[in-house]
Amino acid sequence: MTQFLTLTNRHEVRHYVPTVIVGTYTNWGYSYSTFTLTTTRTYMSVPYPCGTDADYHHVPYMVTTHEDLYDECPVGQVKNSKNECVTPCDTKKEDLKKVFPNTDDSKLQEIADAINKYGKDFGIDTKEKLQHFLAQAGHESTNYAGREFSAFEENLNYQISNLGTNSKNFKKYFNTILAPTLDSKKMNPSDFKRTEPVNGIYYVDKIKFANYVYGHRNGNIAENDGYNYRGRGIIQLTGKTNYTLFNEFYKTNYDENTDILNNPNLVASDHKIAVISALWFFNENVLINKNINNDSTVEDITKIINGGLNGIDHRNQLFSRAEQNINCI
What are the helix (H) ranges across 196-311? Predict the structure, then answer.
């Protein structure tokens, strides 16, 4: 907007300026160079034009807000979704391929594009943070064929014969098939098997199994919450509490019309949301609570993400590759 500065018949006037002023203007044959006042306690001096007897002259000048003036970020920084200037840490498909050689190129391009677009919203601003994120997300999204970023939904195809044998097979919740009633506080695996075997092998009934192992925790209260809010996305977002919080975040920052809480499959089917959910979870649970640097270990990060050290060998392998091949670009 244009405002007017009143000049009296003195050689200069000092005028209190409550906002940032920027602009170039010409008046009475005088050209005034672009100038900037960056604090609200700055005064502006304007030379009084010679050869005039007028007591008052009005010199137009342009006034803009501090935010408008600094619409661009400093060199090396970009705006995030909160309109904050941050340092990005981008990656590219070719580098990801060196870390995840078994993953399809098209999938890696999707991952790279999403990280480059949204990573800056979640504090991914150093190579160490990106390396640890990729190692964790890569493991969590590995399918049974060994391809990372290929399982965007938790695989619940557990064999009845394996339940209770180790922590990976929910030893905390089940007795083994060989001693199904050994511990009265644990369940008999046979009570969770599907009606029909597959190639002679009995697998768990997915709905019954998920509702049992995930029920009554992480906000899962209703009858089918355990199954409905099972792990999805490239870092396996799990539990109604996490889905609720992520849904609120997504609506506020990206799309108010997307209802993830009532459409949880979007975290698996929409690959953009699959990556954003992982970035959100990593930020909320790791970056906010831990300063990741050269001294950070895969074990430390895994305990936060997994609650234990499941798959630690694979996570370490992925991190080692990421450390060798992933830098901010």
Answer: 206-214, 225-228, 240-253, 266-269, 271-282, 298-306
